[in-house]
Write a structure and sequence with these properties.
By secondary structure, the protein is of the alpha/beta class. 27% of the residues lie in helices and 24% in strands. It has twelve helices and 24 strands.
Length: 531
């Protein structure tokens, strides 16, 4: 196969135009091309009057070496075909099946790979199945009672299920784990375009069916998935795991435990801390959600308010503040909603969500500021959790349990808002006006204002006075890291910290990739499980 990079075409091009352009670059007739595979597609919108797609493609033709020599271009070469490889089984014998805590991306992908290679894992999920979970979340958003073990943070699919389903990651991928994760998503129902578009996403509505399909395959391959099963203790003897307690009454023996607990399993972190499992407080970021009309973001990014081919525009913005803190946008949701993502009673957190079509009226993103353990007000490994809780408790009180909302102009003036402007609110969950600055530390408020004013230079209208702010965005990543060695175990033999909650990922794809890494570590050491 011949790899062509930097192939450019108008965004409204046809498939025939792609073949014709490839033939022209290679200086061969179109009829000599046997097949074309798109490897990467990105949008170049630097010139609004000439927006185009930039491709990397693999072309199958005859006499590849002579074609490359004839073309004489640095953007043309032989394609190196790389594939993901799972290790052969190890030799150590298992006395019990491996147990995975958490059915988010890390736990599901770890479980799926172990199940596909004969290890018959047991997944323990504190929340409900994705079908029942959706019912519980919808009920809560419509004014119902919060279920502490089944909400936007907890339940099958993890926190990423109620998000935009974004799959881009900055993790380097020489072993093709990222590609494998995307291929598995496609296998279970995602659009095949996620294999090559620059910023792939699935959407909450589609992701739910994919999660269900993965669970069903794990079960069909001899694994087991149990819901409403919260791990409440860890049985450790002489530095080695012996088993776990579920709901403080059932003991499950195991010598292999994958901790894919997610970034919001605060009670589990507390148990781990009591059991002497080393943990470290780590830096993360907190802030607010900001909403703008999607049409204005499209106009700024594309030069037009509506672009049917490209779909709703996104953005990613960063700024280094004069106080030394970084402020940046995160988890941007084109055509999306700001959602109540709370998981504890009397505490409130928000997140962003989009459906597959991204056809909502607003764009929203997290607008967040970096904080470090020095900001936490404590020196214990769980000081970051205490910091989050203080903010979430204040946010809850500010609007009597509803999402606190404020227009950006009023946020700058340090006064509560009384009415919306031209930006229509797009929320999942009840909301009310408040003065958000009453519960944010001043260093966060100052950083957010400086960031918004700076981002106005990049996106016209970003600092509009009626942009809608909502808070608090406190679950950007785990405030804790559980150290692990080169075998992926922590200091307790048999415990494998994994994914975002353990401090080794930052989103759906990187968490899934970490699930693959841990599955590989277990499989390369142990033989397949058999009764």
């Amino acid at each position: 196969m011949i790899r062509i990079n930097q192939l450019k075409l108008p965004v409204d091009h046809t498939e025939e135009a792609l073949w014709a352009k490839a033939a022209k670059i290679l200086k061969i007739p179109v009829k000599e091309i046997r097949s074309i595979q798109i490897i990467k597609q990105s949008v170049d919108a630097r010139k609004k009057e000439e927006i185009h797609f930039t491709y990397s493609i693999d072309v199958e033709t005859t006499k590849e070496e002579s074609v490359i020599h004839k073309a004489k271009s640095g953007d043309i070469g032989i394609s190196e075909k790389k594939e993901y490889s799972f290790p052969k089984p190890g030799t150590e014998q298992m006395t019990s099946r491996p147990v995975i805590i958490g059915a988010g991306p890390a736990g599901l992908f770890c479980g799926l790979m172990l199940a596909r290679h004969g290890y018959r894992p047991l997944l323990l999920e504190r929340g409900e199945s994705v079908e029942k979970r959706r019912e519980a979340v919808d009920l809560f958003w419509n004014g119902g009672t919060l279920k502490p073990d089944c909400n936007v943070q907890f339940g099958e699919g993890g926190a990423g299920t109620f998000s935009d389903g974004k799959l881009n990651t900055l993790v380097k991928d020489p072993l093709m784990r990222n590609r494998k994760v995307l291929e598995i998503f496609v296998e279970f129902g995602a659009d095949p375009s996620i294999l090559y578009v620059n910023k792939p996403h699935i959407g909450t509505d589609v992701l739910s069916g994919i999660v269900r399909g993965m669970r069903e395959e794990i079960i069909n391959l001899g694994g087991e998935v149990r819901f409403n099963s919260r791990v409440t203790d860890f049985i450790v003897k002489e530095g080695r795991l012996q088993g776990v307690m579920v709901d403080a009454k059932e003991e499950i023996p195991t010598e292999i435990l994958v901790l894919a607990i997610g970034h919001s399993a605060r009670d589990t972190f507390e148990v781990l801390n009591k059991r002497g499992i080393p943990m470290e407080a780590k830096a993360f970021a907190v802030g607010l959600r900001i909403q703008h009309p999607q049409e204005s973001i499209n106009r700024s990014q594309y030069g037009t308010g509506d672009h049917l081919v490209l779909g709703p525009a996104d953005y990613k913005l960063t700024h280094q503040c004069t106080n030394g803190r970084g402020v940046y946008t995160f988890c941007m949701c084109p055509g999306g909603y700001v959602v109540n993502a709370s998981s504890e009673e009397h505490r409130l957190a928000v997140n962003g969500m989009s459906y597959h079509k991204r056809d909502g009226v607003n764009a929203n993103s997290a607008l967040i500021v970096t904080i470090t353990p020095e900001d936490f007000g404590g020196t214990t490994p769980l000081a970051g959790i205490a910091y989050q809780r203080r903010l979430e408790e204040a946010a809850f009180l500010s609007s009597s349990g509803k999402i606190p909302v404020q227009l950006y102009g009023d946020f700058k003036k340090n006064q509560p808002s009384k009415a919306f402007g031209d930006v229509e609110p797009a929320f999942k969950g009840l909301y009310d006006f408040a003065n958000i600055r009453d519960f944010l530390p001043e260093y966060l408020s100052e950083s957010l204002i400086q960031g918004v004013e700076t981002f106005e230079r990049r996106i016209h209208g970003f600092s509009r006075p009626d942009a809608i702010l909502a808070g608090v965005e406190s679950r950007t990543s785990s405030p804790v890291r559980i150290p692990r060695d080169e075998t992926f175990e922590c200091s307790i033999n048999g415990i494998y910290p994994c994914g975002e909650g353990a401090g080794y990922a930052g989103g759906i794809t990187s968490a899934a990739m970490d699930g693959l890494k841990v599955a590989e570590a277990i499989a390369s050491r142990f033989d397949r499980f058999s009764i």
